[in-house]
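WARN  no MSA supplied for this record, continuing single-sequence
INFO  ligand: fe (ii) ion
INFO  echoing inputs
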Amino acid sequence: MIHSLGYLRFETAKLDEWRTFGTEVLGLVATTGPRDDALYLRMDEHAARFAFLPGETDRLLAAGWELPNRAAFRELVARIEAAGHAVKPGTPEEAADRRVEELAHVDDPNGNHLELYYGPALDHSPVVTPHAQRFVTGNLGLGHVVLSAADIEASYAFYTEVLGFRHRDSLRFPAATFGGPEGQMNWVRFLGCNPRHHSVALCEAPMPAAIFHFMLELETLDDVGRGLDRFNARQIPVAQSLGRHTNDKMVSFYAATPGGFQVEYGTDAILVDDATWSVKEITEDAYWGHAWNG
Ligand SMILES: [Fe+2]
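INFO  complex generated
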């Protein structure tokens, strides 16, 4: 029922750093928006895929999920409420701020804030990216986001049974990664809502709402390689080296953002056909590469 990951909204204490990082390193396009004190970044015809609002901390304020139309939006809101979750209608002022027709607020079971909306306003002026790279978006949405899930079963049920995400695959990792007991394994659940392999992944971690990384997909390997050069030239820590994932087959690297979480910058991911897909467990996250640095 959900069409795609439409936008990400952040609070940041490092607006200037994000402006430089977002444009000069990631290659997004700074644009104007409803608030003069905020940073808005474009990557395609959507007016702004990213909004950074000045504040005290660095955190994800909301993941914006696009619905295809009003009927689908109303149906999903009703389904969430019927499942016992509180949905707060967005105000017309909030809709104007996001440049969408209508929105609603809901928290996932771990407190990650989601905004559901339809009817985003487009900006038809050319997207002139600083490094002439092109992002893979359109019906696949802006990329993907990885969120914390302290109670993985509750979050998994919410995203799949209530929001309608499709389970694509899973990965087990040592619970000790987040201070859990030795020998126990935790889950990452990869979930999709369109042919992109996953638009959200839920990481079982005993912590409040948090973003681990967002992913931007580039059209070519050269776009990713030139991006890696920009990170290296600025000595931005690369957290995982270039590698190819075993599930979405993406060739990517991971690096630090000013927000304290990471960005995955990649290309060449598969598209999923729900008619023939069946859920798998991957036992390694990469065929090669993706070596952890520090
Ligand atoms: Fe990722």
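The mean pLDDT is 97.
INFO  checksum written, moving to next record
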